[in-house]
Structure formats: structure tokens, C-alpha cells
Amino acid sequence: MSGPSLTIHGGMIFDGEQLCEGLAARFERGQLTDLAPQSDLPPSEQTLDLAGDILSPGYVDLQVNGGDGVMLNDAPDVDTLSRIARAHRGLGAQMILPTLITDTAEKTRAAIDAATRAVERGVPGIAGLHLEGPHLSIKRKGAHEARFIRPMDEDDLQTLLAAAEALPVLMVTLAPENATTDQVHRLHEAGVIVSLGHTDADYDTCQEYARAGATCATHLFNAMSQLGSRTPGLVGAVLENEGLAAGLIADGVHVHPATMRAAWTANQHPDRNPTDPTGRIFLVTDSMAVAGTDNPSFELEGRLIKREDGRLTLEDGTLAGADLDLTRAVKVLTQEVGVSLVESLLAATTHPAALIGKDVSLAVKNRSRIETLIRIRADLGGVSWLMSTR
């Protein structure tokens, strides 16, 4: 939107911090100027009645493997990234971290180069890059190809350090089994978001790696050491350590709603600022090529992955990413887990954005230009775009 003033009314407004009822939002040239009862606002050139729907900043998804029928691993180039980002914008995500699943060193370098060029060209929605592997644990590999998993060597480290300089955001999922604390420290110092995942490391080791600079965990509960009575694992480390954030695939398939509920309760700290992302659980889709399509299946490195009943599985039944968008994740979190709508929206917008150093707040006090807004159906059944300045 540019030029005309616009007033949006008739529904709840999530401004990135709180959920506002009975208020209208007035924009001028893409900037939120007022949030007040509609009767208190000056006339606008355009008005939009939400008819009970929800106005929100666009989502931020930090784990996106594919969309529009393609995977980043298929062809890591700018065209692939553009297709994936466009598919997820249609699902409400204003920013994504396209994610390369464990692959060759050559494919990793190609993905870094493609993401760098996409950012330089201003491809809408590309915030940086997430490299999920190849320095993972064989034991907890999930759908990752074992033949590509290996220890991080000095060449790998230098590649990642160079990528951190070239990219605005670089997230790296790794396992203590195949990376050292010194490597993690060097990555953290270079600004890389180090996320522990696909690991069987014990609780003490995970805490040691957190002290070295890891600040996140990848898809909580999945492909990691579990919480046991005498072996807390990475799950226990995440729930105890206020410095470890964690992505959560809230589709009701990867994690049972009761398990999500217990984790969410454990993650609450009453004295923490509600918009502070440190140590927060946030929502991710871990979406694959089928995102934004009706495709019944796709291939990953020559392996068939079937789409059925909200699941994506290899032929042996192993889960291979998720058939999920963030509106459905918010719906599962609110209706099946019992998390409030405002907390769920924070987990899909403000908290993941802050983790990568971005601000998506609509708060009037910010006086910043709004890039994207979405209209979420009142029944959380989908989204439509309202505003985009790109």
C-alpha cells in the first residue's frame, strides 16, 4: 500500500505484542498512524471491514525446506528460492529461512551462494538461510541421508564463517556428535544462530554446547535425546535453560498436544518480558515441496515421500518434514493444546522474528513502515493478504 489512507476495522488486531479488540487501525503510506476506536479516527480514503477476522503481521518461519512443488535441495538457485518464498507468502509468511537438508559440501556452497544472491536481489520473503546438517548424529538422522552426514572440519567451518559474513541471517542445525564446542563458539561469535538438533547428546553435553554459544534447538522433541527420569536429554536442557529457544512443529503429528502443553507450561517464566524471544518456543512448519500445492507426493534425493492424512512419510513410515502452514499450527496450539491466541501469534511472528534480529511489530510507537499484513480467518482456517509494500 502506498498513497491512500486506509482504516481497517471490524475484527481483532494483533499488533505484534497484544491482541486488541474494539479498535480500528489507520494507515497512511504503509505506516500505522493510529490504533483507536473507529469513531475517534479521522476519515480515510479507503476502509476495510474484517467481518470478525484477525489482522496480524505476516508470519515468520525459520524452517522451510520447500514449496510450490520444489525442494531447496533439488536445485539451490535463486529461481527455486523465489518459488518457495512465493508459495509461503501465499500461506501468510512474510519472512522465511529456506532450509537445506543434509547434502554434499558442493550443494551446501550452492545454497549459500543462492541465498546470498536472492537477498542481494531483494527476493521478497528471503531473510537468510538455514542449514540443517550435514553435521548431525547418525543415530538421530530421521529422514536425512546417512551418506552425507559427517564431522565438521576446518573447511566446513570456514565456509560457514564466510556465509555468516555474506548473509543477513544464518542458522545452522548441528549435533555435538559431529561438531566441537570450539566450532560452536566461533560460529556464535560470527553471528550464526547455532541450533542443536538431530542429536542423541545427553543433558550435560547439551548444556555445555549452550554455554559455548548454541541458542536454539531444532523441532523440539523430534530427532533428539528425550526427557527421561534420569536422562533429561536435549529436551530437558531446552525446558530448563532460559537461553535455549526451540522451534516446534505444532501439527499434532510430530508432537502430541499433551506433550506440547507440558512443554509450553515448563517454558513459561512469569518475570520475563512477554515479547522477549530468548529461550522461547516458537512455531515452525518444517514444510516440504508440497507446501502451497495439492501434490500427493514428491521426491527427496530420489526417495519417494508420500502425503497422506496430514503426514509426509518415507516408504518405511519415517516422518519426512511436515504438511503444515503456520495458520494451522496456530489453530492446533490454541484449540488442541490450550495456548492463548496472543501467545500463539507471538510464537508465529514476533518471537521467531526477534530471534533473527527482525521486528514485525505494528505498534504505533514504532512509527515504522509496515511491509506485510495478513488477514487470518476467525476460525483459523486460512489467511489472505491485506497489504504488502513489495
What this model shows, in words?
- The chain is of the alpha/beta class and 390 residues long.
- It has two domains: 5-56 and 361-388, Urease, subunit C, domain 1 (Roll); 59-355, Metal-dependent hydrolases (TIM Barrel), CATH 3.20.20.140.
- The protein has ten helices and 22 strands.
- The protein has helices at 78-89, 105-120, 154-166, 181-189, 203-212, 233-240, 257-266, 326-337, 341-348, 350-355, and strands spanning 5-9, 12-14, 19-20, 24-28, 31-36, 46-49, 54-57, 59-64, 66-67, 70-71, 93-101, 129-132, 170-174, 193-196, 216-217, 245-248, 281-283, 297-300, 303-308, 311-313, 372-376, 383-388.
- It has an eight-stranded parallel beta sheet. It has a five-stranded mixed beta sheet with strand order 3-2-7-21-22.
- Strand 16, helix 7 and strand 17 (281-283) form a beta-alpha-beta unit.
- Helix 5 packs across helix 6 (233-240), helix 7 (257-266) crosses helix 8 and helix 8 (326-337) packs antiparallel against helix 9.
- The longest helix is centred in the first third of the chain and has 16 residues, at 105-120.
- The chain is globular, with a radius of gyration of 20 Å.
- The chain starts with a strand and ends with a strand.
- The model has no long low-confidence stretch (mean pLDDT 93).
